[in-house]
# Entry
Amino acid sequence: MQGGVLNPRPSPYVGTYLLLRVDDPRDGRQMLRRLADRIASAATWSARRGAWLNVALTYRGLEALGVPPESLATFAPEFREGMAARAEALGDVGVNAPEHWEWPLGTADVHVALAVVATDAERFDALLEEARAGYGFRDGISHPAVEGSGIPGSNPQEPPLKAGEFVTGYADETGDLAPVPRPEALGRNGTYVVFRARRSPTDEERRDE
# Structure
């Protein structure tokens, strides 16, 4: 399990996302193998490290890496459809509609997202170079505790939430166990993440405010 699933980002922090496309499944899998040792694991996560790398794969990314169709079909439908296809349900209409998103967001070309986060610019630059060699919306406002993790949340009065609210393969707050992608290597201890970029208002919109 990646450390970013359970641990909050430092505050303040320096960070960026790198969006990648996989053109050859063998090259893509090799890239992930090279990055594996740099990914921040929840098992060994430490605030003293000062810089962390996390990796997220889109549905199209799993497809591009060669995951079999029968396995892809076991993922949540929202994940398979993608945010652009669900824009109306999410409220992404008008000026926030997919046709106004910064390219390549909302397209089938986003396969892998690397999140590089550090406590200072020096550590950030070092990890970013390592990540490059191996191949919004505001966060950190609230970080709930996850039951069983032993990591406290940002609100000490709030009880820990069931692990299934964040991690696949565990019961959620309703006691239900959500369908887990197969095989188990893809579904156990995984999570779904949302990547959104805030659109800057135009000069005309600023005048209208």
Remarks:
- The longest helix spans residues 121-133.
